[in-house]
Write a structure and sequence with these properties.
- The chain is of the alpha/beta class and about 190 residues long.
- It has a single domain, classed as 3-Layer(aba) Sandwich (Uracil-DNA Glycosylase, subunit E), CATH 3.40.470.10.
- It is about 45% helix and about 15% strand.
- The chain has helices at about 5-15, 50-55, 60-70, 95-115, 125-130, 135-140, 160-165, 170-185; strands at about 30-35, 40-45, 80-85, 120, 145, 150-155.
- Strands 1-3-2-4-6-5 form a six-stranded mixed β-sheet, sandwiched between helices.
- A hairpin with a 2-residue loop joins strand 5 (about 145) and strand 6.
- The chain is globular, with a radius of gyration of 15 Å.
- The two termini are about 25 Å apart.
- The structure holds uracil.
- The site of uracil (URA) has 13 residues, from helix 3.
- The site of uracil has 13 residues, from helix 3.
Length: about 190
């Protein structure tokens, strides 16, 4: 199978009209970070700030996520951060499965190009798509699954922590475990 470069996939993504979300986007939000990252984070979809800037996780949820990265000693530049959807759903509604079906090909290309050893899903939507459809985030966050060449787990989505701060202790514990595993894998 041909492995496309991140730049090639990004160009295709920027021209994408594969679902209706291209009609309302300001920018595609492809992904940022180290193209050789050992660890990749995958969120759900861009929000308003991400749509305006073209960069994932720069809004309120992203700022909280940055605090967890800093708290456990992971540098944002050493990892790669992307989303399941590259275009913002109107009013931040949940992604539709036909939108995911189209967009997941870009994420697959990113994983093939980057070859991370670990993928961490941010929230249930990414986990349901990448780990298993019936993923239960409250029971299964922090559990590692082996998938071919990489290990994958899910942690709470940072925006869930904004709505329910009682989840913050679990998030810190999961992120500390991610950092520990990252140190072992490097
Ligand atoms: N939420 C996400 O899932 N991804 C972003 O990029 C921003 C907010």
């Amino acid at each position: 199978m041909e492995i496309k470069s991140l730049d090639e996939i990004k160009k295709e993504c920027e021209a994408c009209t594969g679902c209706n979300l291209y009609k309302t986007r300001t920018n595609t939000v492809f992904g940022v970070g180290n193209p050789n990252a050992t660890l990749m984070f995958v969120g759900e979809a861009p929000g308003e700030k991400e749509d305006l800037s073209g960069i994932p996780f720069v809004g309120a949820a992203g700022k909280l996520f940055d605090k967890y990265l800093a708290a456990v000693g992971i540098n944002r530049d050493e990892v790669y951060i992307a989303n399941i959807l590259k275009c913002r759903p109107p009013k931040n509604r949940d992604p539709k499965s036909d939108e995911e079906d189209v967009c997941i090909e870009y994420l697959r290309g990113q994983v093939r190009a980057i070859k991370p050893k670990m993928i961490v899903c941010l929230g249930r939507i990414a986990a349901a798509r990448l780990i298993k459809p019936d993923f239960r985030i409250t029971q299964e966050h922090g559990i590692w699954f082996q998938r071919g060449q990489f290990e994958i787990c899910a942690v709470y989505h940072p925006s869930a922590l904004l709505h329910d701060p009682r989840k913050k202790d679990a998030m810190l514990a999961d992120m500390l475990a991610v950092k520990e595993k990252l140190d072992e894998m490097k």
